[in-house]
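Hi all, long-time lurker, first post. I run a small reading group and we've been trying to get comfortable going from sequence to structure in the token notation. Rather than ask abstract questions, I figured I'd post a concrete chain and ask someone more experienced to write out its structure so we can walk through it together at our next meeting. Sequence below, copied exactly:
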Amino acid sequence: MEGAVVHHMAAARASLGARGRIPRSHIRYLGLHAFAKILARKQSRHVGVLRLLAGDLNSPVMRAAATRLAPVVDQGLSTVFNEIRF
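-- Answer (accepted) --
Happy to help. Here is the structure in token form:
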């Protein structure tokens, strides 16, 4: 996941002239949040993984990232998680 984001950031810099940097904790939070959200659709199959994800998401660094990124993952503002097929 992190590798894909780094690759896309490099491509955006090369082709679009994009600048800036995404903190690693934000990338990690978004990935963990996405996995938790998608796997929660079939909770009975993924109960162990969901517990591990919840533990990771509850760390102080991830809670700080969650506060910062709340508008990004707000279901009312984005439907990206609804469009992921699993």
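A couple of things your group might point at:
The chain is about 70% helix and 0% strand.
The two ends are 17 Å apart (CA to CA).
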